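A quick aside before the break. I want you to see a complete sequence-to-structure record at least once, exactly as it would be stored in a machine-readable document. Don't worry about memorizing anything.
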Amino acid sequence: MSTLIFINENGQNTPFPMDDRIFLGEGLFETLRIADGKPCYAKLHWQRLHNGASLLGIPLEIPFDLWLEKLHYCIELASLQNGGIKVTLSGGSASRGLDAKSQESRLCFDTFHYVKNSHALKLISAPWVRDNNNPIYQVKSVNYLEAIIARRQAQLVGADDVLFYNLKKHATETSIANLFIIKDNLLYTPNVESGILAGIVRQRLLFLSKANAISYFECELDELALHNADAMFVCNSLQGIRTVSMLDKSSFVPHHPLVNLLQELLAKDNC
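That is the input. The structure line, written in tokens, reads:
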């Protein structure tokens, strides 16, 4: 088993032929933020990609040193000081059929620029629920069709995004971010068992909270807990922390002291 590595130069080196398993949704990706010419949390992203590949049975042969080398090469090639790198891992070429497997995966590195948004989000509850036992929610899959449909429906009614719930009516995540709430200066976030992707920034926020004696709980969060929260925010690798101003008809404090503290701690975090 092996991994072919590609650097996408201005869209001219697209590595996926039509028989690649990625066109059946068999693939993973990582999105890394580039700050001051450096990839943030490079090892954590590498570890999560390896964990996901192992779960799906996709071969991934790239040691961390080579991973880091390719990231820095992309940054230098694009003269990128601030932006992002999307790394896509495909299942590789294989014969037709859902049960077919490839012995050679493909890994593509692609740089991009983006604008960081800071306005508070308006969320609505998703019109359908997720099965928290579905393993697809445990990995950063290339299949984002559910998120695309839900997000477009949210925008049709003037919201920015949706919040998904599971079969038990417990909160999970938005289409692209992990969820946190604050109640009585305590921090709460849905646990992994609720059916979420364990985000990199989520992981760092929990680490920073513990290091700074901020009490937090990974637990099941029902609708009542959400609507009674003092503050709410979401987080992901590119946007960091973004506050939520409204969920359905409930509004939240936009500038909570604990949110401000977490933003400061995250800004100082050595990524």
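Two observations worth writing down. The longest strand covers residues 121-130. The chain is about 25% helix and 30% strand. We'll return to this after the break.
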